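The instructor's notes for this session suggest beginning with a concrete chain rather than abstract definitions. Hand out the sequence below and ask the class to guess, before any prediction is shown, which regions might be ordered.
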Amino acid sequence: ADGKSSFEQNVGNLAGGESRTIDFMAKATRTGSFNNTASAMADGGLKADSNTTTTVVKNCNLAITKKAANTKMFAGRNASFTITVANNGDGVAKNVVVEDPVPAGASFVSATEGGRLAGNVVTWSFGDMAPGASKTMQVVLSNGANMGTLTNQATAKSACCPNVNASDAVVFDSIPAIVVELIDEPDPQAPRPRSW
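After discussion, reveal the predicted structure:
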């Protein structure tokens, strides 16, 4: 491979009725239609052109978004995240997998669309995704009584597309409380009954 857009190969002498096959590989750097024609030349000004072949190159293009249902919550409540993965390309995305590691200090509660916890990672397997297809799923995490920011990131992977990531965060705060103090002062004395 030399990065050139054409190549030449000397095949030597060919006797009458003799043929020779040449195989080569080319790599597309973009999607689209590519036409290829080969030419054979020999001494004496002999030349022949082949038929033109067309190769259509397609590619998947994964996109992922992640959104917390609430960006601020009280400690002790569960945080819900919605994840959407889509194939925005013109080719099939093969063996699409979404992975969502559970952050340190948090714990897994539930997931939709068949999401399963293995180790410390929630995983969804969607198989092949056609162009324009999308999947939406939810994951629910618990931060226990911990306060602070819980950041959750998901990654979408495919056998033929670059990985893509998306994240969102929830800020957990303490629950405000009002202290009510009740003081029972001595009751006023009831008036004595009067006698007549």
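Then share the key points. The mean pLDDT is 89. The two ends are 126 Å apart (CA to CA).
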